[in-house]
């Protein structure tokens, strides 16, 4: 048996981890801090829709969706308001389908520049929120509309100075929290929540968590007052749990995970709902070990899991099953990388060098603008240029071969980036097709600038940082899975995950963003709702409030990691 299991284990690990540097490496456990932490994950509700509703207040409270491109069946929906969701409108629909199920829907076009979606307005709106949230604790911008906060210090301070149990008045929005331990459908719910928040006999962890819930409620009201955006949040002792529950009750609600509820919560959570288990590792758990829920993992010893998936991932799985996660909130308000991409579905696929060149030129132009802006605003330099593409192999539909991602040292200057990107493409095409002169077709292209570092302060010439090596792509092409030879100025090596194709630009910064992040100028407030104790109150004044309890399907579709963010979007 032992021998047989080893074999099976090896196969499981291989099929789960294989794929050569494809998205997401196998997860690894981080050492856990001794002291309890308070971590929040915040995610804006139907984000692009809210941005459009702020630009055009007539859309508030109306069924609304943001669509990308309009030339085929009314364009693809990329964000859907909660009013429209009640009619069954979904992100996977085209505009025409949405109109069928919800004739009154307002469809707003995503802004376009250089023949592709221009997401700057959304990025800047996300930065407004980051600027507010980062005032309370270590803040990590996780995607265009998501943030992690480490509120441990703020919660400890509150516990010492003004714990919920000692104050006469408990912040109203906090009493609307969903606490996993408490039943959510009883009449005196808010009284129960209040009692939970103020429990004098709670243990230290739960007391900190209660303070965290109050702090997050305050922050959410502040975000609403200053930006007009609602968001949902999860509050727990680690990032993993906070993220898992932040979308459980949407919109405009928060969910708290006391330690005592972790086991029951994970017992029924399907493995595939965990970010790191969405792919091959999760499939292997299901198919090879018969593990359906995270709780099912409790049936395996740490050694057994290590035997199957290696020491690191085995330990990670063992800890995950118990709700342990040592992963820290990174101190990062700015994006880890800048990516620009576009998809060319179906008949739009690119079939010759000149069309690839023309699109790569546009993508590189935008990328260059964004890294220049990052340089001047934030004194940050990107070191690596990566090209990702997807190819469809005509007549070889079932071929698993992927267009290889290619990287080289990044040289500043639009012309240089364009030149290098084209060389990276040709190198990838050569590896993909060999010397065969068969016809090829490209269904998506993206360029990414990564390995971004801060120029040390006091540096008087930034030129030496941005010239980079004299070599260009033709002499320095690397597969993105290998570590590029970088400029000699590596200050800190960020773990760059060359995310798979991002179909539009994700993280970026702009001048507005710089001001916001540096606190040099607050965004123009369109209307301020002073002293709102409760978000629901605000919502009910301005629009009919919908409070939807989401099932786990909703949870997973609203919680993709940054790397997967734009995956399903159509160009
Ligand atoms: N987005 C996109 N294409 C996707 C997914 C998302 O363009 N396939 C954009 C539009 C979304 C924004 O990113 O508004 C944030 O994505 P979320 O997954 O967080 O979804 P929403 O914020 O729209 O809705 P929810 O309230 O469920 O979080
Ligand atoms: Ca969101
Ligand atoms: Ca999100």
Automatic annotation (TrEMBL):
Q: Which residues form the UmuC domain?
A: 39-278
Predominant location category: nucleus
Q: Where in the cell is it found?
A: Nucleus
Task: Name the coenzymes or cofactors required.
Answer: Mg(2+); Mn(2+)
Reaction(s) this enzyme catalyzes, per UniProt? DNA(n) + a 2'-deoxyribonucleoside 5'-triphosphate = DNA(n+1) + diphosphate
Which family is it part of?
Belongs to the DNA polymerase type-Y family.
- Return the protein name: DNA polymerase eta
Species in which this protein is naturally found: Aegilops tauschii subsp. strangulata (Goatgrass)
């Amino acid at each position: 048996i032992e021998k047989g299991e080893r074999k099976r284990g090896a196969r499981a690990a291989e099929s789960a981890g294989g794929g050569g540097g494809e998205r997401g490496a196998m997860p690894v456990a981080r050492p856990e801090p001794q002291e309890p932490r308070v971590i929040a994950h915040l995610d804006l509700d139907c984000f692009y829709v809210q941005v459009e509703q702020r630009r055009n207040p007539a859309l508030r409270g109306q069924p609304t969706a943001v669509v990308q491109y309009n030339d085929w069946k009314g364009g693809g929906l990329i964000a859907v308001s909660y009013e429209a969701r009640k009619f069954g409108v979904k992100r996977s629909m085209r505009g025409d389908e949405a109109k069928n199920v919800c004739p009154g829907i307002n469809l707003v076009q995503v802004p376009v520049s250089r023949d592709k979606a221009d997401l700057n307005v959304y990025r800047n709106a996300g930065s407004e929120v980051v600027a507010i949230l980062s005032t309370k604790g270590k803040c990590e911008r996780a995607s265009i509309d998501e943030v992690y906060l480490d509120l441990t210090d703020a919660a400890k301070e509150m516990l010492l100075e003004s714990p919920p149990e000692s104050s006469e008045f408990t912040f109203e929005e906090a009493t609307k929290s969903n606490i996993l331990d408490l039943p959510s459908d009883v009449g005196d719910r808010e009284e129960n929540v209040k009692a939970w928040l103020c429990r004098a006999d709670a243990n230290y962890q739960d007391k900190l968590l209660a303070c965290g819930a109050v702090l997050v409620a305050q922050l959410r009201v502040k975000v609403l007052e200053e930006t007009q955006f609602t968001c949902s949040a999860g509050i727990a002792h680690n990032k993993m749990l906070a993220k898992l529950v932040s979308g459980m009750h949407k919109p405009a609600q928060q969910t708290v995970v006391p330690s005592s509820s972790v086991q029951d919560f994970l017992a029924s959570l399907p493995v595939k709902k965990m970010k790191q288990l969405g792919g091959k590792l999760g499939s292997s758990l299901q198919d090879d070990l018969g593990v359906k829920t995270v709780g099912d993992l409790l049936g395996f010893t740490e050694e057994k899991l290590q035997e199957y998936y290696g020491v690191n991932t085995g330990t990670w799985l063992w800890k995950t099953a118990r709700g342990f996660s040592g992963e820290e909130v990174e101190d990062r308000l700015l994006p880890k990388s800048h990516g620009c991409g576009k998809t060319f579905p179906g008949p739009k696929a690119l079939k010759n060098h000149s069309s690839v060149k023309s699109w790569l030129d546009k993508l590189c132009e935008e990328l260059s603008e964004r890294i220049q802006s990052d340089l001047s605003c934030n004194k940050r330099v990107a070191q690596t240029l990566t090209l990702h593409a997807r190819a469809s192999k005509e007549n070889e539909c079932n071929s698993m071969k992927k267009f290889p991602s290619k990287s080289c040292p990044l040289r500043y200057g639009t012309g240089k980036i364009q030149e290098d990107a084209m060389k990276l493409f040709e190198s990838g095409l050569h590896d993909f097709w060999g010397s065969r002169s068969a016809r090829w077709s490209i269904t998506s292209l993206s360029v990414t600038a990564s390995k971004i570092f801060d120029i040390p302060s006091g540096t008087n010439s930034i030129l030496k940082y941005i010239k980079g090596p004299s070599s260009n792509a033709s002499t320095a092409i690397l597969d993105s899975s290998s570590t590029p030879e970088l400029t000699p100025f590596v200050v800190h090596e960020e773990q760059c995950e060359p995310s798979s194709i991002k179909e539009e630009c994700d993280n970026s910064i702009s001048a507005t963003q710089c001001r916001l992040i540096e606190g040099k100028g607050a965004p123009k407030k369109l209307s301020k709702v002073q002293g709102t104790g409760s978000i629901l109150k605000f919502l009910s004044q301005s629009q009919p409030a919908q409070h939807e309890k989401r099932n786990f399907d909703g949870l997973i579709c609203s919680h993709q990691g940054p790397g997967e963010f734009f995956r399903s979007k159509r160009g």
